[in-house]
């Protein structure tokens, strides 16, 4: 178990750092989960989210070596209302990151994050 936690921490730090390097001159908006599925391998999940910029929809899929949302891969209705901050590049809105640690669905007038920390 400790090895899994250490492995995840290293993977998350490297993945987040590499992803953040690709986003410059960014803006924030809310994104919504579109799907969450097991990728087939043990402890491997795919998460798809969507967001809009200037009335145009964008979708991105990310992969995770851990289960972030218990039981959502079996019943997506448990997660279908989840909203999160998305950071997107102003000159290329299809280039985006999501922060899965700040849920927004129950927050009135949410304040955008100050940095890209925890975005991936």
Describe this structure in words.
The structure is a single chain. The chain has one helix at residues 2-21, and strands at residues 26-38, 45-53, 56-64, 83-89, 92-103. With 120 residues, the protein is an alpha+beta fold. A five-stranded antiparallel sheet has the order 3-2-1-4-5, with no helix packed on it. Helices cover 17% and strands 42% of the residues. The protein is globular.
Whole-number radius of gyration?
A: 14 Å
Given helix and strand content, the structural type is alpha+beta
The major β-sheet equals: 5 strands, antiparallel
Shape label:
globular
TL;DR of this structure?
The chain has one helix at residues 2-21; strands at residues 26-38, 45-53, 56-64, 83-89, 92-103. It is of the alpha+beta class and 120 residues long.
What is the element layout, followed by pairings?
Blueprint (H helix, E strand, L loop, with lengths): L1 H20 L4 E13 L6 E9 L2 E9 L18 E7 L2 E12 L17
Antiparallel strand pairs: 1-2, 1-4, 2-3, 4-5
List keywords for this structure.
120 residues, alpha+beta, five-stranded antiparallel beta sheet, 17% helix
């Amino acid at each position: 178990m400790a090895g899994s936690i250490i492995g995840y921490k290293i993977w998350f730090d490297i993945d987040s750092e590499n992803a953040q390097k690709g986003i410059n001159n960014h803006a924030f908006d809310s994104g919504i989960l579109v799907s969450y599925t097991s990728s087939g391998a043990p402890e491997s999940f795919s998460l798809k989210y969507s967001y809009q910029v200037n009335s145009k929809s964008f979708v991105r899929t990310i992969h995770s070596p851990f289960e972030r949302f218990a039981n959502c891969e079996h019943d997506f209705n448990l997660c279908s209302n989840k909203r999160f901050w998305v950071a997107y590049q102003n000159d290329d809105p299809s280039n985006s990151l999501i922060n899965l640690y700040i849920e927004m669905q129950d927050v009135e007038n949410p304040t955008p994050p100050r940095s890209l920390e925890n975005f991936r």
